[in-house]
Structures are given as C-alpha cells and as structure tokens.
C-alpha cells in the first residue's frame, strides 16, 4: 500500500469527514428498528443479488449473438438485432418493466391454455417479468458493446486461423470471443453496476428486494434517513465487490 498517496492532505480531510459522519450517524440517528427488520432485509438483499446475477448472465448470453449478428450477420439477422438494441437503449427501463408486467401480465390470464399450464403459478407472480425486463435491458446495451468488440478483433488472426483449416465455431470459441470479451471487461463491469442500480425499479411491480424493504421500514416506523443511509451503504459495498471481481478477472485474462 502506498502510504504517501494515502496520507495526502485532501484525503486525510475526506477520511476525517467520513469518520465524523459515521460517528454522528451512530450517535444521533435511530437504529433500534434493525433487529425487527433484519430477516426481511436479508431476504431483500438476497433477492437483489439473485436478480442481478441471473439477469446479467442471461443478458450477456443474449448479447453475444446480438453483437455477432450486427457485426457479421446477414441483413435479416443484423437488422432485427439493431432494431432491438435501439429500442432497448432508447426507452426507459421503468417503461419496459411496466409494459411487460401490465401488458403480458394482463394478457396471459385471458389465454385459457396458459392459465391451465404448469407455468401459470409462476406467470401470475411479478418476478418473472422483472427478470425478463432486466435481462432484455442488459442484453440491449451489451449487444451494442459486443458488436464493437467483435468488430475490433484483428481480421488477420481470423484469416490465419481459417488458412490452417480451423473450424468456424472453434475459431469463434478460441480466438474471436475471448479477445472480444477481454476488450470489453471494464465496460462490462460498469454495465453490471448500472444493472445493480436498476434493480430498485422492480419494486414498482411488487417485487420485494432491498429497496422495497427500506420503503417498508419507512412506512412502518416513519424513520426516513436511517434506512436510506443503510441502503446506500449496501449498494456501495455491492458495487465495490463487483469492481474488485472484474479487476481480478482483467488481471487473470491474458492479453493477446
């Protein structure tokens, strides 16, 4: 650790202000509600992390073919992929969540074979629409990013692999995709943090995640600032962990 950089005057002032703020929060604010709502908060935290992980993984798996279709696909694949990414990136995610929940959510009950299927107990809940909306949102942004990543891979490497008779899928798996992912890792980390910040929007369709829990605490106890401060700290910690994970991945993935 570089102690000289850490002990610069402006950083010392910031650390002192932060310590004073923490002491003031601990002494002056109310925290007696924490034991009562801790189980609900843990459940909401787990749901937030679960939503983030599932939607990022599914969204990235969808973003790869979206980016590939835009980079090298024929017009009948590239055009729909481009339209999808344009619509997703051009509309608010809250609007997308509401369109799926209040649109499909009100349409499905009118279809008899859906109401009688094994999927109906899940489709009548809010979380599938939240997962779908967040997944499509992540895929729309990452699809455009992956398009640029695929286009940035040097053509000479691909031509050399073809000249040696490497199958196209093997070339994609061993050369094209790894290099594309390596080039966008910092952007992927930033988009994952933005996805974390989007998860509170699912509370508008009754999904109980950590933000919804803080709203419940404020409504029950009329304590306003304490739940919000604790919520901000939780998001900061999760964002910091995401940053560390992606930095570790960047260090471990070799540059080609």
From TrEMBL:
Q: Where is the ABC transmembrane type-1 domain?
A: 45-246
- Its topology with respect to the membrane? Multi-pass membrane protein
Return the CDD domains for the record: TM_PBP2
Q: Which UniProt keywords apply?
A: Cell inner membrane, Cell membrane, Membrane, Transmembrane, Transmembrane helix, Transport
The answer to whether the entry has keyword Cell membrane is yes
A GO term for molecular function: transmembrane transporter activity
Q: Which compartments is it annotated to reside in?
A: Cell inner membrane; Cell membrane
Q: Which ranges does the record mark as transmembrane?
A: 12-29, 49-69, 222-246
| GO CC terms of this entry | ATP-binding cassette (ABC) transporter complex
Q: Name one GO biological process term.
A: amino acid transport
Q: Is DNA-binding tagged as a keyword?
A: no
Which protein family is named in the record?
Answer: Belongs to the binding-protein-dependent transport system permease family. HisMQ subfamily.
Protein's UniProt name: Amino acid ABC transporter membrane protein 2, PAAT family
Provenance organism: Ruegeria faecimaris
Its taxonomic placement starts with: Bacteria, Pseudomonadati, Pseudomonadota, Alphaproteobacteria, Rhodobacterales
């Amino acid at each position: 650790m570089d102690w000289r950089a850490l002990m610069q005057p402006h950083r010392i002032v910031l650390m002192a202000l932060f310590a004073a703020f923490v002491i003031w929060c601990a002494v002056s604010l109310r925290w007696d509600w924490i034991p009562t709502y801790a189980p609900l908060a843990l459940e909401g935290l787990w749901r937030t992390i679960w939503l983030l992980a599932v939607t990022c993984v599914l969204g990235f798996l969808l973003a790869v073919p979206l980016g590939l279709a835009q980079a090298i696909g024929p017009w009948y694949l590239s055009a729909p992929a481009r339209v999808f990414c344009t619509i997703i990136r051009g509309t608010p995610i809250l609007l997308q969540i509401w369109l799926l929940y209040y649109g499909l959510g009100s349409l499905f009950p009118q279809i008899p074979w859906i109401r009688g299927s094994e999927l109906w107990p899940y489709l009548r809940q809010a979380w599938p629409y939240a997962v779908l909306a967040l997944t499509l949102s992540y895929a729309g942004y990452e699809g455009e990013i992956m398009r640029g990543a695929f286009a940035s891979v040097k053509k000479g490497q691909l031509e050399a692999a073809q000249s040696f008779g490497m199958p196209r899928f093997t070339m994609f798996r061993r050369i094209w995709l790894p290099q594309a992912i390596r080039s966008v890792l910092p952007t992927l980390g930033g988009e994952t943090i933005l996805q974390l910040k989007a998860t509170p929007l699912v509370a508008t369709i009754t999904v109980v995640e950590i933000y919804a829990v803080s709203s419940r605490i404020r409504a029950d106890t009329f304590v306003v600032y304490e739940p919000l401060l604790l919520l901000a700290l939780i998001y900061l910690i999760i964002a910091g962990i995401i940053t560390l994970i992606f930095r570790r991945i960047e260090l471990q993935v070799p540059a080609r």
